[in-house]
């Protein structure tokens, strides 16, 4: 999952980014509202964390502009302001939730996780798909109730596919959502990770859970309505 973090406090920005990366998010950062708006318009994000008190362009204006242009990814606002009017302004502009500074990083991660789940139609941190289960809170993956160890990027890729069951995702889309904006989109790393996921999660090729559609991309099968015997 790829996150946009727009925060002008360099120490807080670095602190939040570090914890997001530890939680297996890919993170792009911006230090002012103009840069944040540009990045939000130009790159595909699964969620954004936006401070309201930003230089050059305030956070409410950034959110309002993104929503007016049709960007629907969930937005969590951060504010050091104590008045309820600022929170209401941010929510009215199109934000989905807010945190008031100072905050506990664990709460930020929990709220962000919940926003991403809800945007994908998942109320619970458990995503189940036939024999496959992923816990987005503990970042554990299991097959037939057996926990499987995945690397950070293998997990990111599988989680993204689990949020988009039955949807064809191109190599470029997958790369954009698990890496930051500096990654080489022409790399064959996605093919490598797909092979690893198949080997780790379905070594006997029993489920054939990831389909390769030549010239289009990859699709994680939706087993919810299938009888797997």
Write structural notes for this entry.
- There is one protein chain.
- The chain has helices at 10-22, 33-42, 59-68, 84-93, 105-119, 152-162, 171-178, 189-201, and strands spanning 2-6, 26-30, 47-51, 75-79, 97-100, 126-129, 132-135, 140-143, 146-148, 168-169, 210-213, 217-220.
- It has 229 residues and is an alpha/beta fold.
- The longest helix is centred in the middle third of the chain and has 15 residues, at 105-119.
- It starts with a strand and ends in a 9-residue tail after the last strand.
- The chain contains eight helices and twelve strands.
- The protein is 39% helix and 21% strand.
- The modification 4-aspartylphosphate is found at residue 51.
- This is DNA-binding response regulator.
- Residues 124-222 form the OmpR/PhoB-type domain.
- Pfam families: Response_reg, Trans_reg_C.
Q: Which stretches are poorly predicted, pLDDT < 50 over at least 5 residues?
A: none
> Treating each run of at least 4 consecutive H or I residues as one helix, how many helices?
8
Output the strand order for the largest sheet.
2-1-3-4-5
pLDDT average, as an integer? 92
Number of strands: 12
CATH architecture of the largest domain: 3-Layer(aba) Sandwich
Looking at CATH, which topology of the largest domain would you report? Answer: Rossmann fold
**Rough shape?**
elongated
For the CA atoms, what is the radius of gyration?
18 Å
């Amino acid at each position: 999952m790829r996150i946009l973090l727009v925060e002008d406090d360099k120490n807080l920005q670095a602190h939040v980014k570090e914890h997001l990366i530890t939680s297996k998010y890919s993170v792009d950062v911006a230090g002012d509202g103009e840069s944040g708006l540009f990045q939000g318009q130009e790159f595909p994000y699964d969620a954004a964390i936006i401070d309201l008190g930003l230089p050059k362009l305030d956070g409410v204006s950034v959110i309002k502009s993104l929503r007016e242009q049709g960007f629907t990814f969930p937005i969590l606002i951060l504010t050091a302001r104590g008045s309820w009017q600022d929170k209401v302004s941010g929510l009215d502009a199109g934000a989905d939730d807010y945190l008031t500074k100072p905050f506990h990083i664990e709460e930020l991660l929990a709220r962000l996780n919940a926003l991403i789940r809800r945007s994908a139609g998942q109320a619970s941190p458990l995503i189940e798909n036939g024999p496959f289960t992923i816990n987005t809170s503990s970042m554990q993956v299991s097959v037939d109730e057996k926990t499987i160890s995945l690397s950070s990027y293998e997990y990111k890729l599988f989680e993204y596919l689990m949020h988009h069951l039955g949807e064809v995702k191109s190599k470029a889309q997958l790369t954009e959502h698990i890496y930051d904006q500096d990654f080489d989109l022409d790399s064959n790393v996605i093919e490598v990770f797909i092979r690893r996921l198949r080997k780790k999660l379905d070594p006997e090729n029993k489920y054939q859970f990831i389909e390769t559609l030549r010239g289009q991309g990859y699709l994680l099968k939706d087993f919810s309505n299938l009888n797997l015997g």
